[in-house]
């Protein structure tokens, strides 16, 4: 439905009725006037499972009309609570703490079945984290929460961790890419159109610091948390060292850890290496844009990747590079890195290179021919094998 306008929406109602349907009306120029039509579609349609209205000028009145459709008897339990809604994405809306507090009142209803909640860049602060924590400790269906680009800070994190440590919390995935200014984050994201992708260069100052002791206690307590994203937070070596204490705990079930651009240096690699040798579940580690890891840090990590107890299966492609931009084969495919790729049968990565030399090329080919090397893809703009 490219460039669908409100005046034409009613003509497409029949398309909503054609069997199982996932309707995406992203960037279609929809305005408030069309949402009564959409609301009526929600009344009539028996199969629509997903409706994407991102980047349309809905406004509050438009959302109110949609909610009338969602309140139709076919969606409701006898208690007048929607039991079919399992995913709610509200990113890049200025909900603020007051809006999220109202939202949490609905989430705490015993009949709520919501599984995924996305509140990316909604101008939230630590003030709303108490009610969010309460939801985490009571809503057993909630498995994924994304709070990226909100200025929650350390105090907000402490509130959230209280809920995460509750025995009734069943959360599996938590996203906490936190910028220091939600408004700045929203403006940058709107200009560069990256809500669905990675963060931009302007995201440098972050809401979390090296106070990671509470997160470490969550890792050692939670039996369900398998994915934690702390990208773009200035955790530093001291913060990661605290996290590693939790990672080494026998109760830790974490499988995926994001530490993209967290101001890490070689000083934390010993602790990370120790955690990799102990943790039996961690299979994916993102260390991109930590430029100060250096040769010494890379060597420490690669030694542990060769260890038979290491379960790591994927490391993000820039994470072992000494230079992130204009990286060369020489930087990525150094002997220690190639050694770990050859020794560890469980390990794979995606490698990127932009320069070549004959010596480096021969070195790469030799290790790619190793029967134990499981590099899945090696992409290059200038290197042709």
Write the layout of secondary structure elements.
Blueprint: H1 13-16, E1 21-24, H2 35-44, E2 48-52, H3 59-70, E3 87-89, H4 96-107, E4 116-118, H5 129-138, E5 144-146, H6 153-164, E6 173-175, H7 182-192, H8 213-219, E7 227-229, H9 236-247, E8 256-258, H10 269-278, E9 284-286, H11 294-305, E10 314-315, H12 329-332, H13 335-343, E11 348-353, H14 358-368, E12 377-380
Parallel strand pairs: 1-2, 3-4, 4-5, 5-6, 6-7, 7-8, 8-9, 9-10, 10-11, 11-12
Helix pairs in contact: 2-3, 5-6, 6-8, 8-9, 9-10, 10-11, 11-13, 13-14
Characteristics of this structure?
385 residues, alpha/beta, Leucine-rich repeat, LRR (right-handed beta-alpha superhelix), 10-stranded parallel beta sheet, disordered N terminus
Could you walk me through the main structural features you see in this protein, from its secondary elements to its overall organization?
The protein is of the alpha/beta class and 385 residues long. It has a domain of 75 residues: Ribonuclease Inhibitor (Leucine-rich repeat, LRR (right-handed beta-alpha superhelix)). 35% of the residues lie in helices and 11% in strands. It is built from 14 helices and twelve strands. The strands form two sheets. The chain has a ten-stranded parallel β-sheet, with no helix packed on it. Helix 9 links the parallel strand 7 and strand 8. Helix 5 runs parallel beside helix 6, helix 10 packs parallel to helix 11 and helix 13 packs parallel to helix 14. The longest helix is centred in the N-terminal third of the chain and has 12 residues. The relative contact order is 0.06. The N terminus and C terminus are likely disordered.
